[in-house]
Amino acid sequence: MSMKRTNVYADPEDLAIIKEAAKRRGISEAEIIRQGIHLAAMANRVWDEPLFSRTFEGAGRTLGKSEVRDTVADAVRRETEAGTTA
Questions:
Q1: 33 Cβ partners below 8 Å, 6+ apart?
Q2: CA-CA 20 to 30 A from 28: which of 18, 42, 62, 72?
Q3: Helical axes 12-25 vs 29-43, angle rounded to 10°
Q4: What is the pTM of this model?
Q5: Are 75 and 54 in contact (CB under 8 A)?
Q6: Of the candidates 73, 4, 60, which has an alpha carbon nearest to the alpha carbon of residue 34?
Q7: pLDDT single digits (tens) 30-79
Q8: Which of 14, 34, 30 has the alpha carbon at shortest distance from 22?
């Protein structure tokens, strides 16, 4: 993978922590910073698909634990039955 050089300003205390962590882990400070950049990029990414693609009909109120379990079980049962008859 090709890399692109960039310059950033960082808090001296953060850099000291990174320096200590790099020494302790036996990796470069740059690698820790690259990992941090990757985490920041992923945290701010806009995904093409929603995290939850299933929707369930509900009562318009917060359900109790047993109601949630029953609703999910019913949905799974319906999906399984639809898959076996196809």
A1: 18
A2: 42
A3: 110
A4: 0.54
A5: yes
A6: 4
A7: 999 999 999 999 998 888 877 776 776 766 788 789 988 998 999 999 98
A8: 30
